[in-house]
Amino acid sequence: MSDAALRTTSMTLAEFDSFLSNRPEHEHWELIGGAAEMMTNPLLNHGLIVGNIFAPLKTHLSGGDCRAFAGGLRVQRSNDAGESFAAIPDIVVQCGPRPNRAYTLNAVAVVEVLSRSTMHRDRGAKFDFYRSLPTLHHIVFAYQSQMRVEHYRRTNRGWVLSESTRSTDRLTLDAIGFDIDLGTVYDDVSTLRSVAVVDDADDEAPPIP
Fold it and tell me: What is the phi/psi pair of residue 50, to 5°?
């Protein structure tokens, strides 16, 4: 997720929606554990990675029951006014009914492009929230500074991590029948730091409860 300015006041979802009604339309906020956070303009690499994933994903899903959205659709667990999360992933895929509203309760996959200033939250509070969503099958973290993608997928053993670091490695979202190689994900992305190549035996981490 792009850099964020933090508002520390604790809010429920109802209070957050009331707060948004008094904010300019060009501002984008998300509610993370009761904290309202305003998203700021992303860096170039962030935008390139989001676009490189979103464009083929949108094409892949065209005409089906699922849709991809980039950087605007809120993800919520329910309509409960007392909820404390309304997260905005960089990319979200929802399947099934699509009421004309600013949020979805049917997220199947989310992608976050990590920024240094927001990485702790994306891989902390937001990650915990995403794993609590009953409809979600895939959580993807893509790094800006290096060719590295972490993919958490839900299995009957819990959440399982696969990490990819090579241009020929493929990110596969089997719940929606989509895959993409990292060379495409990082096409035209500059200033990438090198990473150690992951041994084949270490590609998949143990399940996460």
Answer: -60, -45
Q: Which residues pair with 7 in a beta bridge?
A: 36
Beta bridge partners of 54: none
Could you tell me the two tokens for 41? 């303009």
pLDDT of 199 above 80: no
d(CA 168, CA 106): 31
pTM: 0.88
Question: pLDDT tens across 51-66, in order?
Answer: 999 999 999 999 999 9
Neighbours of 12 (CB within 10 A): 15
Q: Smallest Cα–Cα separation from 195: which of 145, 151, 154?
A: 145
- Residue listed under structure tokens 């949020």: 103
- Within 13 A of 181's CA, how many CA atoms are on the CB side? 7
Which residues, 6 or more positions from 83, have their beta carbon under 8 angstroms from its beta carbon?
12, 13, 76, 77
Q: Are strands 138-143 and 107-114 parallel, antiparallel or unpaired?
A: parallel
CB 186 within 8 A of CB 166: no
Q: Are 192 and 186 in contact (CB under 8 A)?
A: yes
